[in-house]
């Protein structure tokens, strides 16, 4: 989902209209580039069926933060069957995405510390992560970068102002963020990891 709409872009650019299909394509591309810059989706999302590698330790990390809720955590047994684990009994979690194994019973003297298996893709997770509302600053980044990519929104070929004439041509540009936009994206990314 794009972080702004074609109507938002019209308002931002102060033009009466834009080609909606082009605007939506550009807005989505910029939104994807913002996510790539941050290393995760900036908006809230449900993640289902993601496979996480076990590492043999008591903690593993779910990708994407903040983690808002856990729908399910399953563990792949040596026999190839999935076992549903229970939060607060089999594991604890926090908003930074850490899943921590819990002691199976209260007999700490005889049990080894619990850990996740040391196997690839042995933990299957379903959870919700990200922020509920995109900040106005992040929306500004999306709109600013998108506006720079929009092809001549007024459809002008040339215009004359007094004794000066300007000719417009198609300019091919990639998605590039300005220094201030980069700082906003860096802060957004850092705030998720704080």
Structural write-up:
The structure is a single chain. With 194 residues, the protein is of the alpha+beta class. The protein folds into two domains: 6-41 and 133-193, no CATH class; 45-129. The chain contains four helices and nine strands; from the N terminus they run ααβββββββαββα. The chain has helices at 6-13, 20-38, 136-149, 179-193, and strands at 45-52, 59-61, 67-76, 82-85, 91-93, 98-101, 123-129, 158-161, 164-167. The strands form three sheets. A four-stranded antiparallel beta sheet has the order 1-7-3-4, with no helix packed on it. Strands 2-6-5 form a three-stranded antiparallel beta sheet, with no helix packed on it. A hairpin with a 2-residue loop joins strand 8 (158-161) and strand 9 (164-167). The chain is elongated. The chain starts with 5 loop residues before the first helix and ends with a helix. The model has no long low-confidence stretch (mean pLDDT 84).
What's the SSE blueprint?
Layout: H1 6-13, H2 20-38, E1 45-52, E2 59-61, E3 67-76, E4 82-85, E5 91-93, E6 98-101, E7 123-129, H3 136-149, E8 158-161, E9 164-167, H4 179-193
Antiparallel strand pairs: 1-7, 2-6, 3-4, 3-7, 5-6, 8-9
Helix pairs in contact: 1-3, 2-3, 3-4
Primary descriptors:
single chain; 194 residues; alpha+beta; 2 domains; three-stranded antiparallel beta sheet; 4 helices; 9 strands; 29% helix; elongated
């Amino acid at each position: 989902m794009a972080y702004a709409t074609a109507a938002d872009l019209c308002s931002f650019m102060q033009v009466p209209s834009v080609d909606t299909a082009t605007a939506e394509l550009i807005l989505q591309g910029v939104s994807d580039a913002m996510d790539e810059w941050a290393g995760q989706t900036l908006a809230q999302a449900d993640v289902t069926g993601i496979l996480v590698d076990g590492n043999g330790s008591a903690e593993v990390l779910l990708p994407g933060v903040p983690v808002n809720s856990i729908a399910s955590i399953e563990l792949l047994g040596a026999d190839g069957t999935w076992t549903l684990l229970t939060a607060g009994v089999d594991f604890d979690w926090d908003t930074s995405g850490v899943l921590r194994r819990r002691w199976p019973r209260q007999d700490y003297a005889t049990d080894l510390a619990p850990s996740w298996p040391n196997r690839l893709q042995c933990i299957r997770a379903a959870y919700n992560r990200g922020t509920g509302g995109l900040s106005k600053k992040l929306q500004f980044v999306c709109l600013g970068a998108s506006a720079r990519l929009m092809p001549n929104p007024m459809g002008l070929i040339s215009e004359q102002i007094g004794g000066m004439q300007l000719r417009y041509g198609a300019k091919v540009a990639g998605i590039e963020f300005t220094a201030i936009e980069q700082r906003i994206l860096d802060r957004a990314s850092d705030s998720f990891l704080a």
